[in-house]
Task: inverse folding
């Protein structure tokens, strides 16, 4: 995707896709009072410490509703991303073998998974998503980064890496073939990391 100069008025019409994603994937996500979770609809652009007047690239539109497991309830929710070209992928957090959710401190979350659904090259690969909620407004404040654990498809090693990373933030050993990290920032919308005071972390 070519770099563009972003303004809020330049967002393409991807809201319909988001609504469809909520209807199709959101049935397994519902509110729980004392559950750590990350929720939101936001637009992410590829950069780390950029400013609003800089050219941005790798823009995608994302929905997240990821609930951490508790002693009474299993992990659940979804993550959905689509770009201007219509390439999309999704994670289903009810599948805790292939995914993980860890809200590990106030405003910080790591979610990850082996992509099972989509129409692009992500399907079959393992990705992690670090989410940093820095309060309101989210515009050029909330930060994210994406970890690709490997270029290999259907990798058991990558599945083990994503679970270890989700729990600790570290890799369990040397990086796998194709390991990469992309930094990003929120340029529209918002996500919120809810860390319940009742669960002890």
Result:
């Amino acid at each position: 995707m070519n770099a563009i100069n972003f303004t809020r008025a330049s967002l393409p019409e991807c809201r319909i896709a988001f609504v469809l994603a909520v209807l199709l994937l959101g049935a397994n996500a519902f509110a729980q009072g004392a559950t750590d979770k990350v929720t939101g609809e936001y637009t992410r652009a590829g950069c780390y410490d950029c400013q609003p007047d800089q050219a941005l690239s790798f823009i995608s539109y994302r929905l997240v509703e990821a609930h951490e497991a508790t002693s009474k309830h299993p992990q659940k929710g979804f993550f959905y991303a689509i770009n201007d070209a219509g390439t999309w992928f999704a994670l289903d957090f009810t599948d805790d073998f292939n995914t993980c959710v860890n809200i590990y401190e106030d405003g910080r979350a790591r979610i990850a998974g082996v992509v099972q659904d989509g129409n692009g090259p992500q399907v079959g690969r393992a990705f992690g998503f670090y989410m940093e909620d820095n309060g309101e407004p989210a515009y050029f404040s909330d930060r994210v980064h994406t970890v690709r654990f490997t270029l290999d498809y259907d990798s058991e090693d990558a599945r083990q890496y994503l679970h270890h990373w989700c729990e600790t933030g570290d890799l369990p050993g040397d990086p796998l073939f194709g390991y990469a990290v992309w930094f990003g920032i929120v340029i529209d919308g918002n996500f919120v990391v809810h860390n319940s005071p009742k669960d002890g972390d």
User: Anything to note?
Assistant: Confidence is low (pLDDT under 50) at residues 1-32.
